Amino acid sequence: MGVLLAGCCLQSANAQYPVKIHSHNDYTRTVPFYQAYAQKIYSIEVDMFYRDGQFYVCHDEKDIADGRTFEQLYLQPILSLYKQNNGQAWADEARPLQLLIEIKSDNTSAFMDALTRLFEEHPSVFNPSVNPNAVRVTITGHVPAPDEFARYPEYICFDGDLNQNYTARQLERVALFSVDFQSLSKWNGKGLPVASERVRIAEAVSRAHAAGKPVRFWGAPDGITAWNLFQSMGIDYINTDRVERCADFFSNWHNKTYVIGGDASASATGVTRTDRLDKTTHDFAGFRNDKLQLAERIPLYTPSYLNDGADLPVKNVILLIGDGMGLAQITAADRVNNGLNMLLLKHLGLITTSSRDAFTTDSAGAGSALATGEQNSNRHIAMSDDGKPYPQLTDFFKEAGKDCGVVTLGNVADATPAAFYGHNVERDNAEDLTRELLNGKLSVLAGSGMECFVRRKDGLDLRNELKQRGYRFVTQADEIDADTAKVVCIDEEMAKATDTDNFDLLANATRRSIELLNGRNPKGFFLMVEGAKVDYAGHSNCFPASVVETLGFDRAVAEALKFADRDGKTLVIVTGDHETGGLTLIDGDNQTGRMTACYVTDDHTPIMLPVFSYGPQADKFGGKYYNYDIPRRIKTLPIE
User: Fold this and answer.
1) Domain map of the chain by residue range?
2) Dihedral pair phi/psi, residue 627, rounded to 5°
3) Residues 403 and 441 sit within 8 Å (Cβ to Cβ)
4) Of 188, 199, 344, 379, which residue is most buried, by most CB within 10 angstroms?
5) What is the DSSP track for 166-184?
6) What architecture is domain 287-636?
7) What angle do CA 278, 275, 15 make, to 5 degrees?
8) 114 touches 55 (CB < 8 A)
9) What residue ranges carry the coiled-coil annotation (predicted)?
């Protein structure tokens, strides 16, 4: 009997979702059974009447109709699939399907006897003692009295009532407890239930779990806010009439929720990656899910604000660009970490990001706008539509006698870093772009992308050419030091995702590059730092990666602020080039920082982005303006 009762009592959730998704009133779907089955959910509900020796599927007796029978809509599809899949519901997953049959008619005894006869014709499909992967049958609605449970085969289980006193034997036949949500709360699914109602909901869950059973609420709000709340409260079954959307919300759950200091052993395994990257970065290996669990929150640097907003000449400018980093990404990282360095800055503006030829920009158009002060078309790198090169901020500062640098946690030939030293009408022309490094405009370049320097199709060994022009060529960020020589650092670690193994890599490269530039030239410097992979996280729809990449980028912001406070003449500007993924924050926990979020696309979006500024002249970057106005405003500042 223990094996049979395990079918009633120990039904495990589908590993595809963190909860059991229950297709409520499944027969109302456009395609009953198959719509829910296609989502590989756990449980399907069928309302049935028994009349004249036939089971009819409908909610009300007046709706009984020929062609709407249990045999046609459910039994035959189930039998066919079990035959096709060699005795299991799904071909690729040995997991049972629950069929929750609601008795709508008042002839419970006749209904149950006929249903038992029907199922006993197919023991390999409905009897777990014959087939461990058999359909789990649970009866709800006009459930037989508990003292009648024993009349029926042990593979038939029953829906429980929390107000019913069951014997131990009877409780073994209970598969779950279903509760009328309206008896506990009048919540409509917006915000949260009031505190007293949350207590009642939690008490119902606790009572079910104390009996060793899962719980389902019917008559409950049915939407993302409710699903998220119910999952966080430990409600086992999500009762839904919107099965596809519910399944989509809970799919890939490890990529939709994050908390710092969680149990690393419970982290998801595998790799999350995207095929939406461009030619230069399409080989990105992805985000290792088990390496995204930070053990503790990241400490912040508190700025001195000594010269913040002061009307003083600017000696150095550090521009930090979070690729793909919109306000949602910033908000998420802030709430998860309980603070960000960039949000400690008091001067704030907003920029629009549309490119010349499109409402939604790519990184080439946006990066080039930030580099040149001109509105560029998508895929163009600091160049007009007719092939005219646009002067860049690096040209402006070079002419002012300052040194320039570019640091990216990505490929140095990708759109945003290339926009500060190269020109081309096609962002994928990496060899042409990197050849322009030979003009010597940059004193430091750091990132990944060795393929752009050796084994090039044009036969050029760019490493040797750069060495002949006075550059040190190194392959580790730790080798960037205050030596007076110019440096090109191609460190392939910088091609990898930010994770627990290399969390401070960008911050380290930023700090070392600042020290090098500051030591080289007493007249000052310009440095662009890119956090490249917030964008990759958006394309991959990987929320944990977005949080970790944003926090890693924010560590680089801290290094810029530390130097600005020591120096007193450095302007720091922090912004993004565009938002990626349409990230939407669903809900979170103010105490733990746990957050749930979803993406609405795997591409860029045109939403406005914040601009944070710090140091002398920082007050000049407030208001709402175009992205290309950032370099234009920089050029109007008093430069020391």
Assistant:
1) 2-7+18-251, 287-636
2) -60, -35
3) no
4) 379
5) --HHHHHTEEEEEEEGGGT
6) 3-Layer(aba) Sandwich (3.40)
7) 155
8) yes
9) none
Q: 109: how many CB neighbours lie within 10 A of its CB?
A: 11
Q: Compute the distance between CA of residue 401 and CA of residue 205 in angstroms, rounded to an integer.
A: 69
pLDDT given for residue 264 in this prediction:
58
- Judge contact between 433 and 418, C-beta under 8 A: yes
- Cα–Cα distances (Å) from 109 to 54, 151, 315, in that order, read 14, 10, 89
Sign for the CA dihedral angle at 230, 231, 236, 239 comes to: positive
Cross-strand partners of 525: 403
* Cα distance between residue 154 and residue 46, in whole Å: 20
What's the pLDDT tens digit per position in 442-468? 999 999 999 999 999 999 999 999 999
Distance between first and last Cα of the chain: 86
- Encoded amino acid at 597, one letter: A
Residue at 54: amino acid letter: Q
Sign of CA dihedral 197, 202, 203, 205: positive
Other CB atoms within 10 Å distance of the CB of residue 434: 25
Residues paired with 585 in a beta bridge? 597
Hey, which residues are catalytic here? 363
Neighbours of 330 (CB within 10 A): 24
**Fold of the domain spanning 2-7+18-251:** TIM Barrel (3.20.20)
Residue 449 exposure: Cα atoms within 13 Å on the Cβ side = 28
Residue 110 and residue 108: Cα distance in Å, rounded? 6
Residues of the chain with pLDDT under 70: 1-14, 264-267
Q: How wide is the angle at C-alpha 219 spanned by C-alphas 216 and 225, nearest 5°?
A: 80
The arrangement of strands across the sheet holding 584-588 comes to 257-258, 595-598, 584-588
Predicted pLDDT of residue 122 = 98
Tokens of 142: 């006009």
Length of the chain: 640
3-state SS of 507-549 is: HHHHHHHHHHHHHHCCCCEEEEEEECHHHHHHHHCCHHHHHHH
**Residue 266, pLDDT score:** 58
Strand, coil or helix: 399: helix
0.90 exceeded by the pTM? Answer: yes
Do 2-7+18-251 and 287-636 come out as alike in CATH topology? no
pLDDT in tens, 164-178: 999 999 999 999 999
Q: What's the CA gap between 11 and 175, in Å, rounded?
A: 8
Amino acid at site 10: L
Please enumerate, as own/partner, the contacts of 288-292 that have beta carbons within 8 Å and a separation of 24 or more: 288/497, 288/499, 289/254, 289/255, 289/544, 290/264, 291/497, 291/499, 291/500, 291/501, 292/258, 292/267, 292/499, 292/500, 292/544, 292/545, 292/548
pLDDT score at 46 = 97
Cβ-in-10-Å burial (0-12, 13-18, 19+) of 190 comes to exposed
Q: For position 484, what pLDDT does the model report?
A: 80
